[in-house]
Write a structure and sequence with these properties.
The protein is mainly beta. Helices cover 1% and strands 48% of the residues. The chain has one helix at 470-473; strands spanning 10-12, 24-28, 31-35, 41-42, 44-50, 57-63, 80-88, 91-98, 104-110, 121-122, 132-135, 141-145, 149-153, 160-166, 178-185, 188-195, 203-209, 217-218, 225-226, 235-244, 250-257, 272-281, 284-287, 293-295, 310-311, 324-325, 333-334, 342-345, 357-362, 368-375, 379-388, 391-398, 401-408, 411-419, 425-433, 444-451, 457-464, 480-499. The strands form 8 sheets. Strands 25, 27, 28, 29, 30, 31, 32, 33, 34, 35, 36, 37 and 38 form a 13-stranded antiparallel beta sheet that branches. A hairpin with a 3-residue loop joins strand 12 and strand 13 (149-153). The longest helix has 4 residues, at 470-473.
């Protein structure tokens, strides 16, 4: 592709769709890396790589073993909050909060962001969430946390020095000053924060000072990014990080949501990672227009590998996009027991249970279809769309029967059931956005059913998607579509996921 921008080509924004909130970015040479929050899911902290800021490929999960991450007693939307990723002194540094009791702030390092990452260096004297790392010219390391406060630390040992000092915390009385990131840019140190809460009033503000400890003067045009009080299709914009390209241009990654349906608007994919250009005017960053489609850049594009629609479970380990609820013991989840199959051995009795054996991937498209071929001859399990223990839909198979289940708050319902021939069966779910008819129209519908021997799809239940949304369920996560075991042992031959058009 030419280095000249091709105005007839656009790229979708979000650049990392689906439940990928709280992005933190760093560049090393021509390579960019992003990490995101993962909450109660294991493995934790997905790591993405790009060469052009537009095409992102997941290359691993930073926290992929129990010595790094324990989530056993974590409630849904607890666990891993807001990592910061930086590159300094020849290595990658990752600092994050595990809000589960006994967790706290932890620091990890790696020479390759794809892993392996170190066991944690704990920071017991650094309370708070959303930790950030920044080094000044003499090598002093500063850790800044939500609130916004700061302390000097030794990143190799986790030791903190001196009392925490309060820094600038945004607009007077503004809710939730958080997600601080500190940068040395030109003659100033810039302190970027989020404020207003991660809902509709979310925003990004910035201040600057001559030293990393301040004092900081606020930008006269704060907030520099917010969609509060607008009907913009991308809402809840905030929790940002800045990166500079080799050509000198600046860009911002940040979280946002895409509400659908009527009022108040329901977002179902969780908070996603968006991208916007940044210009510097009079020493302050000015964020460009946030659009659902990004124009082609002036630099060459470097697409990553195309993710296959089907996973045949033919590898000895699961691919990095697969996540489980709280843990994934090998004795409950393996591709090695039956060649070319994923085997799940039950623990919790249903998706209602916190220890359910579940393997899923984030829903990343507003219109999509997922299918799996299950052998339930030794147990009972199925295909589920999960938001949390109290909000999920599933189609479940046992020998000779399938049924559609719905859990909404305190209500658990068998929507429909039917008999099927003994042996493996293909289960499916189709998600389609709805056209709002009035203020009460939900964002989408989920149709669950079975595939007949001739390949035709038979719908057994069509359910309103609003009940699997953050506006109904609360919390900080998004939908995850996957496979589970409820009783005994179930085997899955393959799993398909693909976006739908129309």
């Amino acid at each position: 592709m030419s280095d000249q921008q091709q105005t007839d080509v656009t790229f979708p924004n979000p650049v990392i769709p689906g439940f990928h909130p709280d992005p933190s970015i760093c560049r090393v040479g021509d390579d960019y890396y992003i990490v995101c929050s993962s909450f109660e899911y294991f493995p934790g902290i997905p790591v993405f790589h790009s060469r052009d800021l537009l095409h992102w490929t997941q290359i691993g999960n930073a926290l992929d073993r129990p010595s790094q991450l324990l989530l056993t007693d974590t409630r849904s939307s607890g666990g891993i909050y807001a990592p910061t990723l930086r590159h300094h002194d020849g290595r990658f540094w990752l600092i994050v909060t595990n809000v589960t009791e006994g967790g706290g702030n932890m620091l990890f390092t790696a020479t390759d962001p794809a892993g392996p990452w170190s066991d944690p260096v704990r920071l017991p004297d650094v309370p708070g969430i959303d930790p950030d790392l920044a080094w000044d010219e003499d090598g002093t390391c500063w850790c800044t946390v939500a609130g916004v406060s700061q302390v000097r630390i030794d990143p190799y040992t986790g030791e903190a020095f001196g009392p925490r000092r309060q820094l600038w915390s945004g607009a007077l009385g503004a809710k939730a000053p958080e997600a601080p990131h500190l940068y040395r840019i030109g003659d100033y140190w810039y302190l970027l924060i989020a404020e207003g809460g991660t809902e509709r009033c979310h925003g990004v503000s910035i201040a600057r000072g001559r030293t990393p400890t301040g004092p900081f003067e606020p930008c006269p045009d704060n907030p520099i990014l917010t969609h509060r009080g607008t009907d913009h299709p991308i809402q809840n914009t905030g929790h940002a990080d800045l990166v500079q390209r080799p050509d000198g241009s600046w860009w911002m990654v940040f979280l946002g949501v895409r509400p659908g349906g009527g009022s108040p608007g329901w977002h179902v994919l969780g908070r996603e990672t968006f991208l916007a250009p940044v210009e510097w005017v009079d020493g302050w960053p000015v964020v460009g227009e946030v659009t659902p489609e990004l124009p082609a850049p002036s630099w060459p594009l470097v697409p990553g590998p195309v993710q296959a629609v089907r996973d045949d479970f033919d590898l000895s380990e699961l691919r990095p996009q697969w996540i489980s609820v709280r843990d994934r013991p090998a004795e409950h989840c393996t591709t090695k027991e039956r060649s070319g199959w994923l085997t799940l051995r039950s623990r919790g009795g249903s998706l209602d249970e916190p220890d359910v054996v579940f393997v899923g991937r984030r829903q990343q498209h507003l219109r999509c279809e997922a299918r799996t071929r299950i052998d339930p001859s030794e147990g009972r399990g199925g295909l589920a769309v999960r938001l949390d223990e109290e909000h999920h839909y599933e189609i479940e198979a046992s020998e000779g029967e399938v049924r559609v289940l719905s859990r909404i708050g305190p209500l658990r319902t068998v929507v429909e059931s039917r008999s099927v021939p003994a042996g493996p069966v293909v289960l499916g779910v189709r998600v389609r956005a709805t056209v709002p008819l009035d203020a009460r129209t939900g964002p989408d519908t989920l149709t669950l059913g079975v595939e007949e021997p001739d390949g035709m799809f038979t719908a057994l239940g069509t359910l309103d998607g609003r009940y699997l949304s953050t506006e109904v369920a609360g919390g900080f996560t998004g939908r995850v579509i996957g496979m589970y075991a409820a009783t005994g042992t179930v085997h899955f031959d393959w799993f398909d996921y693909e976006p739908l058009t129309g």
